[in-house]
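Problem 3 from the worked examples.
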Amino acid sequence: WRDRGLVLVLALILFGQWFIVTFGGRMFRTQPMSLTEWGITIASTGVVVLGSGEIWRAVKRLRKRK
């Protein structure tokens, strides 16, 4: 949380996604999502993003050892 600019950008992206999905309707061909659907989406995306980052760092560490 040291980089306030990054936190602001992430918050704006999250708000933008919510706004488009909730109110985009016919323009973006979306339908509003329930709170449960948002939770599942955010949790599963977080697992993929954080997990892939951890795997990448582990691979880099293993390559350094050789």
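Problem 4, a separate protein:
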Amino acid sequence: MKSMWGTATQQSWAGKSYFVSKALETTTMTIALARENTAYYINACRPGWVSTDLGNQDGAPPKTFGGGAKIPIRVGFGDIGESTGNYFANDDIWGKGEGKVQAW
């Protein structure tokens, strides 16, 4: 499983239980819903580090609210083919692109 801190084999997850449980829930729900609802395209996405009340608590996020909306808008309304059960994000939380399919 991948997160902004790397993979589980790269370092200890001690003290990061919230992030690990959130990633696991998102992964399993997206894949399960995509398999159960084949008439729909179901994907997950990460908008990156966005300037919000929560995002500002840990520094100065590089993205505006509008910049953070790029990936969700692309996944919801853009041309992503017949992609389903996938995870869209930029390569890191600072990236300002429209995202691409990432490995779970």
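Solution to problem 4. Residues 17-36 form the longest helix (20 residues). Strands lie at 2-3, 6-7, 44-45, 87-89, 100-102.
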